Amino acid sequence: MLKTEKIWFDGELVPWEEANVHVLTHTLHYGVGVFEGIRCYKCIEGGSAVFRLKEHVQRLFHSAKAVEMEIPFSVEEVAEAIVETLKVNKLEEGYIRPLAFIGSGAMGVHPGKNPVHLVIAVWPWGAYLGEEALKKGIRVKTSSFTRHHVNIMMTKAKVCGNYVNSVLAKREAVADGYDEALMLDPEGYVAEATGENIFIVRNSIIKTPPLDSILPGITRDSLITLAKDMGYEVVEQRFTRDELYSADEAFFCGTAAEVTPIREVDRRVIGSGQAGPTALLLQSEYFKIVKGDNLKYAGWLTKFEI
Ligand code: PMP
Question: What InterPro entries is this protein classified in (predicted)?
């Protein structure tokens, strides 16, 4: 990971090496913290833009509400702080990680009146699953770990502790020689991946699981809008792993993974065994949008200059 100079910490910009916490930080022990993953891109016409900044910051606050954390800043202040952190670090293109966590004080499970802190780190980050993955597609394995039940975790919230499930699944998939894990919900339906939402394509109809036990991905939302605008039929409907096996195409999406085609699941070749044409088309349109090369979606961009 390529570090940058400063991290925004409770309103101050502190040197990267000094953005540290006490070992008795409550979140470190019990996992109740909330975070975001956001990207900014260099624009075709100059300058840079953060993609769907407002929606990401709003989701951070919704996540905090779900786990009863009060972030001591407003949505507007956090959005401004993100742009400020990018500018201070002269980061034209990269990844943005806001994290709200519960500090030290009470050490029981109940966090009592422990303070809530907010940090914003930014760093350069290329393709999450590799450049090859974007072009050729990835190999996926259904995880032996089930995605959370909606009454066990707050599945629509991006809560630190939820990601233990993701880390277990990702490690298992990688150790078994795959690129990413596919996670099924407690009833056995396809849910999402460890940090991505999933789509399949069959007879030109695009399908994605509904927002029940999955993270409401902002890339997912963007692709649904884009695909509909391009004339595709998009349905939000549960499907099983065997429907995925026989799909014409499948792909993952997320801020980090962008639009990543899937070429194989559980040793079954998906479609032609290469990145599918719909996935590649949506990927190229997505990259145009995030780089300011499709003005129809300019409202999704928060432009800034270094
Ligand atoms: N599902 C999970 C579990 C994730 O961690 C992410 C990444 N935030 C996504 C889906 C995709 O969400 P987004 O498009 O908002 O990055």
Answer: Aminotrans_IV, Aminotrans_IV_CS, Aminotransferase-like, B_amino_transI, BCAT-like_C, BCAT-like_N, BCAT_family, Class-IV_PLP-Dep_Aminotrnsfr
